[in-house]
Amino acid sequence: MASNTERFQEVVPYTTRLKKPHEVDGRDYHFVSRDEMEKGILLNRFVEYGEYKGNLYGSSIDSIKCVINSGKVCVLTPHTQALKFLRTADIKPYVIFVAPPSFEILKATRFEKNARHTVNDLPQPFSDEELQKMINTSKTMVIRYGHFFDKTIVNGPIEQAVKDLIHIVELVGKEPFEYQKFHWIFRGNSTAQCN
Known about the structure:
Blueprint: E1 8-10, E2 14-15, E3 30-31, H1 34-42, E4 46-52, E5 55-60, H2 61-69, E6 73-75, H3 83-86, E7 96-99, H4 103-112, E8 116-119, E9 122-125, H5 128-145, E10 151-154, H6 158-174, H7 177-185
Parallel strand pairs: 1-6, 2-3, 7-10
Antiparallel strand pairs: 2-5, 4-5, 8-9
Protein name: Guanylate kinase-like domain-containing protein
InterPro entries: GK/Ca_channel_bsu, Guanylate_kin-like_dom, Guanylate_kinase_CS, MAGUK, P-loop_NTPase
Organism: Octopus vulgaris
């Protein structure tokens, strides 16, 4: 998807941190004052936001709509709690959940790819406990937010997971709009009581 910028576009997030010399406002981030961002948060203009190292970060509804209105597919990696705010008549997301494989496959594929994460600003391999935490977190996400997921991809062999993701995205792009809208509106468990 990153190689097809004519069709796909990520949302440019907002932040209150200072712009670094190599960054471009509106391309890397929308750099705004803390007051401006806090007002936007109070007015529910962000589908998600948070604070990291004293700076606010967030994805605005207007940024998402801007990508959609440009005719491109908006690519967003939201926190799961933001999913309930994304399901609106204006946005109509197609949610693909990427789940970890079994512990053994997860460990083998991450070792094979020399996958690392940062601890105290140093790259470290994943420990068995961290890999198990990924699996447990994934299970919790499915229980709490699975009704928002349109498709699930198991991230086992990475090359296959990428092929599966591209295949799903291509299919979604070819489905008639009416089907996608109908599927979205009537998907999930209803809590309504009918008499």
